[in-house]
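A further point concerns the way the authors explain their paired sequence and structure data. An entry of this sort, consisting of the sequence and the corresponding C-alpha cells, reads as follows:
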Amino acid sequence: MNVVEVLVEGGKASAGPPLGPALGPLGVSIKEVVERINELTRDFAGMKVPVKVTVVAAGKAEITVGTPPTAALLKKELGIEKAKTDSTTDFVGDISLEQVKAVAKKKREGMLAASLKSAVKEVLGTCVSMRVKVEGKEAKEVQREIEEGKFDETFS
C-alpha cells in the first residue's frame, strides 16, 4: 500500500507537481484522482488543504482530505490575507460568534473537543493569538462568558 501526502489549494489540484509525479508510478488514474480531490476540497478554495491519497489496489485510490489550519479558516471568514499586527493593542479584525461556530464545525473532526462548545472555545484560543476580536470583545472575554453559560442556548 502506497500513501502520498500533499498540500493542495482547495479545488485547484492539478496533474503537475506535487501530485502527478508522485502518483504516476503507482498505476492510478491521475486525472480521476485530481478530479476527486478538487471535488472534495472545493469548499476550501484559496486555502492550502492537506490531502492523503492511499493506493489500495491496482488502479484504486482512497482520498482523505484534512482541514486547513484554524488560523487559515479564521482569515477566510474575516476576509484578510495576514493575521499579524505589530501592536499589542491593535486587532486584525472582528468576527461574529456564528462565524467562530462555523469554523469550529469545520475543524471538529480533527479536534479533541468533546462538544461543539469546547471546539468553539478552542477556536477562540486561536482568535486570542491572532489578535481577533469576537463580537467586539477580546476573545478571552468571550471564552469566560461561554464558561459562565452566557451562550448555552447557541450550543443546544
Observations:
- The longest strand covers residues 48-57.
